[in-house]
Amino acid sequence: MIDLRSDVMTLPTEGMLRAMTTAPLGDEQVREDPTVRALEDDLTGMLGQEAAVFVPSATMANQIAMLCQVERGQEIVGERHSHMFRYEAGGPAFLAGAVVTGLPGTAGVFTGAQVRATAQVGDSEHRPRTALALVEDTHNVSGGRAWPTAALDDLYDTCDELGLAVHIDGARLFNASVALDVPPDRITARARTVAVCFSKGLGCPAGAALVGRADVLAPARRIRQMLGGSLRQAGVLAGAARYALRHNIARLADDHANARTFATLLAEGGLPVDPADVDTNFVFLDVASLGLDRGAAQERLRSHGVLWSNAHHPGVLRAVTFLGRSEEDVRTAAARTVKALTTA
């Protein structure tokens, strides 16, 4: 069975497991874990920021970023299908009492002009004051699309002018960096906060970090404690993350190449896939246009030895390439997919 449901299916390599078992350890809650401290220093340098906090998940990193910057009743603006808006269990409303305003985007990208037209930057008796603009890069629901740097610069310029914070949900930030062939800080240096995840394409079993300006992150550790995210000998996980930063970023280009190969083979086999939409490691397949519902399509695919997941969009399936899936795997999966969906 070739499992392409998500890049969260990655497993630690032997080298990563060695890094985990040999990492120096201490009590992270009192800042005595040297591996966590080293990881946080690595991240501030890579992302052009001042401070970092290691956390269990990118969802927690996003929520802490919000709680550090958004007061109850204030507004967050972002693309309407952003992960933080749609897939974090209502965290902005439940935890911060925040209003979320979803903007229509193109490939996950919205514009500074949209923010200018939407934001309430002064106090009003009737409207929530806008505090934060949220960028998800890469954008999951749009198919792992990366924000072009010109679009990001436009948003930063607008938010600077309006006095709004920018938070980057960078669960797949390093995919964006590799796809655009720019260093990560080209994307993140102007943000106030950035969330990064280690358990997707970077291949770690768990772990994430919130990185940002030191003054903004001043309450982050207290909030992490409040949310139950404080850790003890967290160097076991931070060791995996440090290994990933050294060894697994450049190789994301292999995942992207495999996704393009996969999409091209599917299109050549007559399936409704557009390889031009593949920026990184996601491939979308519109099975509704084949007259199939997703459940039936997935059963056919499973019976032919390949696993896809549901995309956000009705009638669309998603495949994701990642560490542990070779070019041979995706070529085999493409042949199985074409056979499964084109044979009566």
TrEMBL record:
Alphabetic keyword roster: Lyase, Pyridoxal phosphate
Aromatic amino acid beta-eliminating lyase/threonine aldolase domain span: 3-288
Pfam families listed in its UniProt record: Beta_elim_lyase
Keyword Lyase: yes
Membrane-traversing stretches: none
GO molecular function, one term: L-allo-threonine aldolase activity
Cofactor: pyridoxal 5'-phosphate
Source organism superkingdom: Bacteria
GO CC, one annotated term: cytosol
Protein's GO biological process: glycine biosynthetic process; L-threonine catabolic process
Keyword hit for Lyase: yes
Coiled-coil parts of chain: none
Residues annotated with N6-(pyridoxal phosphate)lysine modification: K200
Recorded family membership: Belongs to the threonine aldolase family.
Record's protein name: Low specificity L-threonine aldolase
Natural source organism: Actinomadura chibensis
